[in-house]
Every structure is written in structure tokens, then in C-alpha cells.
Write a structure and sequence with these properties.
The protein contains 19 helices and 48 strands. With 951 residues, it is α+β, with helices and mostly antiparallel strands. The strands form 13 sheets. Strands 11-26-25-24-12-13 form a six-stranded mixed beta sheet, sandwiched between helices. A six-stranded antiparallel beta sheet has the order 16-15-14-23-20-19. Strand 21 (516-519) and strand 22 (526-530) form a beta hairpin. Helix 4 packs antiparallel against helix 12 (353-365) and helix 6 (197-213) runs parallel beside helix 7 (237-246). The model has no long low-confidence stretch (mean pLDDT 97).
């Protein structure tokens, strides 16, 4: 038995570090009054002075550096870290981020409110595990990949780096965002992500499951959206999946709400009638901390207190959530400062030389060479003069979740330094038009200056004052002023549209408000107050400097041109705003073509948060490179890659589609039926998932499996030799995919099973072994409600990318074939169909269960259930809900092989959650196995059905 430390003698049990964690938590919980416990359910948990318990706040943003708290090391965006395919590197980055977070916790004042509301939180709201299904998602930059295996591996590495290696104490507490199926911004609080069971289990949950099961995560944040008609903040999946996965780790997840999401349950979602009811439902569903009403804890705490008084929750519900918070605080060392191994972290770690070097390495490792016809790497001796052109050539931008960069090395700056060391030089040119806007009514120049105009796509432009370099911005009083050094605010007021209104004449319109600039006829003041074009001021657009002409001239005098294009992370694709398409901004495309016309040796660098359709560039340019917004060291990293001092070691974490490829609808979350991602997309992409070229030549050979066949619970080792046959050292990502050849379900084209990043010297070879389990061949069986590995033929594929296999080995799985789905005296859930048309999954009740209804009640929905054993079936019982009679009838037709088995009139139940059962005799008894088709006519919901036998 361990002895009690001297310092703990006479102290309450929760102060005794020798006691088990659970006992300490329980002791503290018992000492708290009910009011104190309820108060802890808000983001800002107040101090309890009588117990010596400090105030606590949840959540510091730490996606790719400490955010919003002041200057900190800024690493590449998450999508860039994903492009590294390097788990060790990602873990190092997260270690640096959490170390700096510790320093902010101890040595920097809170950015929001005062220290009385708690120090800067050690709970890190990162990483984001939402899959990059649709490249138009406004928050694409925050995710790692479109693939769940890749995302989980990178996410787990980031979590481990955040939490540290100590067996007892956490350096910081990683929170997984955003649970679940969150991949659109437009109307995000009211849209529902439709997830059939296979997509739910094989895709969206698959990114979270391994990370939680590993014990690397300490919490999760619920998403704004709905899934299958039910808000994520009251989803039964929080308990049924997330917390179930965590049980073997010995620690419970601490689940937080997203900002204002609890209030959204009433307005705008109208899912509950009042806030006490909604907050009670969220607490019962597993939300432990309410990020709502900012620093005003009184409102959400008052709602929870009302819920308690009304009997909607009880003390056990409160205690369960508070216990999870307290456990986390104990693990963060709050109650054992003398034992906390991270307590001595000093402020000098913030932007330390070591972290700067790591930021540079991360930016280098995530750079992807998309195309290269031999132009790269550039030889400074042969290309001593480089024109560096474009709106992103000599600037770096921060995204919403970036930290504040302590310094910025742009690509132009980095290339100038690197080339200068060899006696070369750069010619930096932005390539933007400089224009003046002169009032047609007063003759005065807008802002009394000219403006540099940048096209960010979709008609949105920024205007930067030529004399100060500051952005023109809409003021709170609707006036205009060029007073913003950067664009980084929740409401972006620095984007405008210049709408044609005649020869050399435009209207100036705010993207933020939609209103036009008008001029006061008396005083001449300019305000954006005109509601219509007819009321707007007309402005003469005067070209002061032709940006394309300047860029062409620079390119003509250079040995090679480097054109840097891309996005501003706060414009046209950001939180709350999805992109409309994947096109390069028209003005940027025009600039690129003009430069390439006069200087064929042009390399395009795309610095962006997301993929673009680069069809023209891929066809006409000798080299194309992609980097995310790579942080403070971007320029040094890119210069090293361009000049061959470093390898382009990144690989694409998502598919880059062609411009003429019609993408599925943004809200179509069914990757199987819609054809999303490399797994199911049917057209050849421009650049596939996993793509990335090297400056050296890698060869893969001698793929062999340890066994030609395995059982349904077996495993196999795949061994392959990788050789660097080139003259340079380099890194290759060996990608291992699997494919089912005889699937009875719609299987993926192929699916990533494993990967490894390997660096080899010239002439070096290495044998790599990958252990593949049968589980990695599994699919979700809607017949059994579990994962299943079907016997049959499979392939193990070693590839350079999802569209570039290099070695294939056959693998056979032996075992018992799946039995038909039982249909008689067996309740079949309507959502567990094999296929469907014109149907949508919705909520069966507010708390649990799914149902199916027609997407449009005027059009019938069809559900297909394959291989159902109906031996002895004589009747069918269906469970339906129908709110009202509406304008037409409601009928459910049951067919098999073209034969109508039953036609059931669906009764009105008065509410979408009021369920009734209706039984109908079949037209004739059934025997054997059949494919079933259920057709839903009219506005009703079907949650389940069962066939009955004789008697």
C-alpha cells in the first residue's frame, strides 16, 4: 500500500495524488453543492473559493498553432499537415503547439475576459476529423483528408502530440471536431447530412473510431448540423458510438458543444419548443459543457436549472457531466501542480528557434509537386533571374484558426534570399491592376487614392490603397475607409463587387451587406446605403497600372517565371461560406495565361486551402506545385523545393477534380451513390488522391503476401521493396490499397488500407512489411447490423496514388458466405436498405431511431432489400407515422420480382413521431429468398417492418 505524501496529510481526498483518480474525482464532486455543479456545465466554470478550486474555461483553438492568444508559431494548415502523410512530423508539430499552449496558460493573460474566468485553457479544440468529401466545403483547410484511414492516422498522431507521453498527466487535452458528418457551411445549422448505415459506419464514423479507441483523444465537440434529421447535439451516437469506443481506455470523453449550438436547437432549428427542454435533451444525450451565450453563463445555467426544476433532468445527469470535466482537470495537473511534469514550461518556448525550424520542415514536407516536365528543380546557375508574380507571391495570409504569425517569409522573400546566395535575383510583381474610382457626380476620387485590385473569384475583389497598402473596409456607420492591414474577422467587410454600368463605369457594391455605394449630393460623403443599382453612384474606373502588362514585362526579362495564385482564406470559402465551384478566379487565370504566353518556362504555385480545377495549367505549363497556406516559414520552404535544396515530399490528401467534371450536390453525403472521393468517383480526376511527384526515381518491386488466403478473422503480411534509383535522396509514400473483386454490395473502386512515408538515399532500397487484417476488407452489412468480411477474391495493391497502381497481389478470403437476411418474425429497420431512390433518412423520435420518407412527397420513394428469406411469410406488419392527411393519400407497396405482395393504406397518426402498426395479408404465401422493393407514396414515415408466418 502506498503511503500518503506528507503534503497530503490532513487534506481532503481530492487533494491526495496517491489516491486513484476516480476516488479523487468522486470526493470533489461530493463536496460541491448542486448550484456549484450546475454552474460548471457552462464553458466558463466559476471558481469555488471555499474548496480552493480555480475557475476553468474550456477550449483553446490549436489546429495548426495556438490561435487567438497572440503571436505563436504558425504551422501549415491542417490540410497541409495531411498532405505530409507523415505521422511522426504531425506528432512533433502537435507537441510544439501544446508546449506553446502550456506557456500561454501560465504566462499570458486570457484573450477573452479576465483571469477570474480561468486561465487560457489547456483543453485544445483540435484536431478536425471531418472528412474532405466535397472540396467546395468552406472549412476544407481544417481537415486532413477525404479518406477515413488517412484522417484517423494523422488525427491520432496530432492527438498524441498534444497530450504528451506522461502516464498520468496531460500536456494538453485534445478535443475531436466536429461530431458528425459536417462538410457544408451554407445553412449549416439547419441542414441534415443524410447517412445510410454503410456511409455512417464505413466513412464518417471510421475517421473518429480509431482515434477514440486508441485513447489519444480526451473529448469531442458536437457539430452544428443535423444527421438524418436530428441535431448532432442530441445525437444518440455520442453515447452509442463515441463513448462506447472509449470504454476500454479507462477514461470517459468530455464532450463540448459548439458555440451557440445549444440555443440553435430552439432557434433556428425549431427542434424543441423551449430552451430548458433543449438543454435537458443535450445534457442527456452526452453534452457535458455548454459553449453558449459567450461569457454570459447565467442564461444557459438558468435554462439547465429550470430543466432540473421541471424534472427534465436530475442530479445524476448533472453529476455525470461534471465528473467528466473534473477528471479532465485532474489529468491536466490542476490539482497537483508540484507533480505536473509540464508546470515548468516557460514563455521562451513560444516561437522558439526549434519551433521555427519545425515550421519550415512541416511546410517543406507538405509541398506537393503536381506536374513536372523537367523545369523543376530550378538551377540558379541557369536561371539567375526569376520573375515571381501573382497576388500571393509576396504575402502570407492567416486563416480564421491561424495563430498570429510572429514574422512572415513570403515566397518572394524566400526565393530572393535563396537565389541571392547564388548571385541571382528575383523580380517581384503582384500582377494586380491599380485603379482609381472617380465619382461621376462629384468628380472626386474614392478615398482620394488609387487602389490595387485583386480578384478572389465569384466577382469578389479587394481594394488595397496604393498609398498605405491597407484594405478598403466598410465601417459600422456604412462609410468607407482604407484602414485594415489584414483581413481576419468574423464578418469580412473588405470585399466588394465592381458591377458594370456602362463604358469604363462601375457600381461599387459590398459583398457583406449587398448594398451599393452612394454619394451624398450635399457633402459628398460616400456611404454604402443604396439598396438598388438605380440608387447607386456611378464610378469611372480609371486604369492607373495594368497588372497583366507589368507581369508580362517582368516575365519577358526573366529566365523563368514563378506564378503564385490561390485563395485568401477569409474570402470565398471559409467558416459559414462554401465555395460555389472549384474554378481559379477569372482574373488569376487570365494573369497566368498571359505570363505563360511570353515565358513558356513558367511554374505555377497554387497556395490554397482547397483544390482548384487546373485543367489549362496542367495542359500548358511545365510545372505545377501546391502548398496549403503553410505558415510563417512558407517562403523558405518553397524556395528550398523550387531550387532543389529540398524534396517535394507531400502527396495530395484529396482528389483534385477536372473543371468539366460535374460534382455531386453539396448536401449529397452518400458517397456511394453520389460518387464522392477516390473510392466511388467514376470520372478520371485531374490529380488523384495520394498523387505527388518527386525529383528522384522510385521503383516498387517484389510484392508478396505471406499467405495467398486468409480466414474471415485472419491477417496477412504484405511485403514490398522500395528502391531509390535516382541520383538524389527523396521521400516516397508507399500506399497500400485493397479491393473486393466479387462484392455482393457496391464496393469501393479501391480503399486505402495502410501507408508509410520512407526516405531513401540514392541507390538505397528497403523492404517494407505491412500487416493487413481481414477487418480492413470488411464492409458494413445492413442485414446483420455489423461489419462483415465476405469470403471471395480480393486484391492488395501497392500504388503511387489512388489512380496509379504499380503492383497487385491476389488474396482470397475463405469462410462461410453470408446468410440471407431473415425476414419472417424479424424486425427490419427501414433505413437498413441495400439501395434506394428518392428517399431520405429522418429521425424516428427526437432522441433515437431512424425512419425513411420520400424526398418529395409528390414523388414515390423506393427502398430495395436484397436476399431476404421470406419462407413461410403470410403477412406484413409496417410501422408508420403520418402527420396529416394532406392533399393526397399515402400508400406503401411491397413488391418482389415485379409482383405486388401487399398495398397498404397508411393511416394518419397526427404527429411525425406518433407511430402505429398496420398489418396486411400477403397476396400469396412466400417461400425462399427474395429481393424486396418497398415503394412509399405520399407524405409519411416508415421506420420498420416485419413479416409474419402462419397463425
Amino acid at each position: 500500500m502506498s503511503s500518503v505524501p506528507v503534503s497530503a496529510v490532513g487534506l481532503p481526498d481530492f487533494r491526495n495524488p496517491a489516491l486513484p483518480l476516480r476516488k479523487r474525482v468522486d470526493d470533489l464532486l461530493e463536496r460541491l453543492t448542486l448550484d456549484e455543479r450546475i454552474a460548471m456545465l457552462h464553458q466558463y466554470a466559476p471558481a469555488v473559493p471555499r474548496l480552493g478550486v480555480a475557475a476553468f474555461r474550456t477550449g483553446s483553438e490549436a489546429l495548426h498553432g495556438v490561435s487567438w492568444l497572440g503571436e505563436a508559431t504558425v504551422f501549415p494548415q491542417a490540410v497541409g499537415l495531411g498532405a505530409s502523410w507523415d505521422e511522426d512530423l504531425v506528432r512533433e508539430v502537435a507537441e510544439a503547439v501544446s508546449t506553446e499552449l502550456r506557456a500561454f496558460h501560465y504566462h499570458r493573460p486570457p484573450a477573452v475576459s479576465g483571469p477570474e474566468r480561468g486561465a487560457n485553457s489547456l483543453q485544445a479544440w483540435a484536431p478536425v476529423l471531418n472528412l474532405l468529401r466535397d472540396p467546395r466545403w468552406g472549412r476544407n483547410e481544417e481537415g486532413y483528408s477525404e479518406d477515413p484511414v488517412h484522417t484517423a492516422r494523422v488525427g491520432e498522431a496530432f492527438c498524441k502530440g498534444l497530450s504528451g507521453d506522461h502516464p498520468t498527466y496531460l500536456r494538453s487535452a485534445p478535443v475531436l471536431k466536429h461530431f458528425l458528418a459536417y462538410n457544408n457551411e451554407d445553412d449549416r445549422c439547419t441542414t441534415s447530412s443524410g447517412l445510410r448505415p454503410r456511409v455512417l459506419q464505413e466513412y464518417d464514423l471510421a475517421a473518429f473510431r480509431p482515434v477514440v479507441a486508441s485513447g489519444a483523444a480526451t473529448g469531442a465537440m458536437a457539430a452544428y448540423n443535423l444527421v438524418n434529421g436530428r441535431p448532432c447535439h442530441v445525437s444518440p451516437l455520442i453515447e452509442a458510438e463515441l463513448r462506447r469506443w472509449a470504454e476500454p481506455t479507462g477514461h470517459e470523453l468530455f464532450v463540448v458543444s459548439d458555440a451557440e449550438a445549444p440555443s440553435n436547437l430552439v432557434d433556428p432549428e425549431h427542434y424543441f419548443d423551449d430552451h430548458a427542454e433543449s438543454h435537458a435533451a443535450a445534457l442527456k444525450a452526452g453534452i457535458d459543457s455548454f459553449t453558449d451565450h459567450g461569457e454570459d453563463s447565467g442564461t444557459p445555467v438558468g435554462r439547465l436549472r429550470e430543466a432540473l426544476e421541471r424534472g427534465l433532468i436530475d442530479e445524476a445527469d448533472v453529476d455525470r457531466a461534471v465528473r467528466r470535466q473534473l477528471e479532465l482537470r485532474f489529468r491536466l495537473g490542476e490539482f497537483d501542480p508540484e507533480l505536473d511534469p509540464y508546470a515548468g514550461t516557460g514563455p521562451e518556448v513560444i516561437d522558439s528557434p526549434e519551433h521555427r525550424a519545425l515550421a519550415r520542415r512541416a511546410a517543406t514536407e507538405s509541398t506537393v509537386l503536381l506536374k513536372n516536365d523537367g523545369l523543376l528543380p530550378l538551377d540558379p546557375a541557369r536561371t539567375p533571374r526569376i520573375a515571381v508574380i501573382g497576388p500571393l507571391a509576396d504575402t502570407l495570409f492567416e486563416d480564421w484558426y491561424s495563430g498570429t504569425m510572429p514574422y512572415r517569409v513570403s515566397i518572394a522573400t524566400g526565393l530572393a534570399a535563396a537565389l541571392g546566395a547564388h548571385g541571382g535575383e528575383i523580380v517581384p510583381v503582384e500582377g494586380s491592376d491599380r485603379i482609381a474610382l472617380r465619382s461621376r457626380s462629384t468628380g472626386e476620387l474614392l478615398g482620394k487614392t488609387a487602389f490595387d485590385l485583386t480578384d478572389w473569384g465569384g466577382g469578389a475583389v479587394t481594394l488595397r490603397a496604393a498609398d498605405t497598402g491597407r484594405y478598403l473596409s466598410l465601417q459600422d456607420d456604412d462609410a468607407l475607409a482604407a484602414d485594415q492591414d489584414t483581413i481576419k474577422s468574423w464578418f469580412v467587410k473588405e470585399t466588394f463587387r465592381l458591377e458594370p454600368a456602362g463604358p469604363d463605369t462601375v457600381l461599387l457594391r459590398s459583398v457583406f451587406t449587398g448594398r451599393y455605394a452612394a454619394v451624398d449630393p450635399t457633402g459628398g460623403q460616400v456611404t454604402l446605403t443604396a439598396e438598388t443599382a438605380e440608387e447607386a453612384e456611378h464610378w469611372q474606373r480609371e486604369l492607373v497600372r495594368d497588372g497583366i502588362a507589368e507581369a508580362r514585362a517582368a516575365a519577358e526579362t526573366a529566365d523563368v517565371a514563378v506564378v503564385v495564385l490561390g485563395n485568401h482564406p477569409m474570402i470565398n470559402g471559409r467558416e459559414t461560406e462554401d465555395r460555389a465551384d472549384i474554378d481559379l478566379p477569372e482574373g488569376q487565370e487570365e494573369l497566368l495565361r498571359a505570363v505563360a504566353t511570353v515565358r513558356p518556362d513558367t511554374a505555377l504555385i497554387v497556395m490554397s486551402s482547397y483544390p482548384y480545377a487546373l485543367d489549362w495549367a496542367d495542359e500548358h505549363l511545365p510545372a505545377v506545385v501546391w502548398t496549403s497556406h503553410g505558415g510563417q516559414e512558407t517562403g523558405n520552404a518553397l524556395a528550398a523545393v523550387l531550387l532543389g535544396e529540398a524534396e517535394p515530399a507531400g502527396r495530395l490528401p484529396q482528389t483534385w477534380y477536372r473543371g468539366d467534371d460535374p460534382l455531386p450536390a453539396p448536401l449529397d453525403y452518400d458517397i456511394i451513390k453520389a460518387g464522392w472521393t477516390y473510392q466511388y468517383h467514376r470520372s478520371v480526376p485531374l490529380y488523384p488522391f495520394g498523387h505527388g511527384l518527386s525529383y528522384t526515381d522510385f521503383a516498387h518491386r517484389d510484392l508478396r503476401l505471406s499467405h495467398p488466403s486468409i480466414g474471415q478473422d485472419g491477417s496477412v503480411e504484405a511485403t514490398v521493396t522500395l528502391e531509390n534509383g535516382g541520383a538524389r535522396p527523396g521521400s516516397e509514400v508507399v500506399q497500400v490499397y485493397v479491393r473486393a473483386l466479387e462484392a455482393r454490395y457496391e464496393a469501393p473502386r479501391l480503399r486505402l488500407a495502410d501507408f508509410r512515408k520512407v526516405r531513401l538515399e540514392p541507390g538505397e532500397s528497403r523492404e517494407l512489411t505491412f500487416r493487413l487484417s481481414a477487418e480492413q476488407l470488411a464492409h458494413w452489412s445492413v442485414a446483420t447490423g455489423d461489419f462483415a468480411v465476405d469470403p471471395g477474391r480480393y486484391e492488395v495493391i501497392v500504388a503511387r496514388s489512388a489512380d496509379h497502381p504499380v503492383l497487385i497481389a491476389p488474396l482470397t478470403v475463405t469462410g462461410t458466405p453470408a446468410a440471407p437476411r431473415p425476414g419472417v418474425e424479424h424486425r427490419i429497420l427501414a433505413a437498413e436498405f441495400d439501395d434506394y431512390e428518392d428517399a431520405v433518412i429522418v429521425d424516428a423520435t427526437r432522441s433515437d431511431g431512424d425512419a425513411v420518407t420520400p424526398t418529395d412527397p409528390a414523388q414515390p420513394a423506393r427502398l430495395l432489400f436484397r436476399e431476404v428469406d421470406l419462407s413461410g411469410a403470410r403477412a406484413i406488419e409496417v410501422e408508420t407515422a403520418r402527420e396529416g392527411a394532406g392533399t393526397g393519400g399515402a400508400r406503401l407497396d411491397v413488391r418482389s420480382g415485379g409482383r405486388v405482395l401487399a398495398a397498404i393504406e397508411v393511416p394518419v397518426t397526427g404527429d411525425r413521431y406518433a407511430w402505429t402498426s398496420t398489418t396486411a395479408e400477403l397476396a400469396a404465401p412466400l417461400h425462399g429468398v427474395h429481393d424486396l422493393s418497398l415503394t412509399l407514396h405520399g407524405d409519411f414515415r416508415l421506420t420498420a417492418f416485419r413479416f409474419g408466418g402462419a397463425g
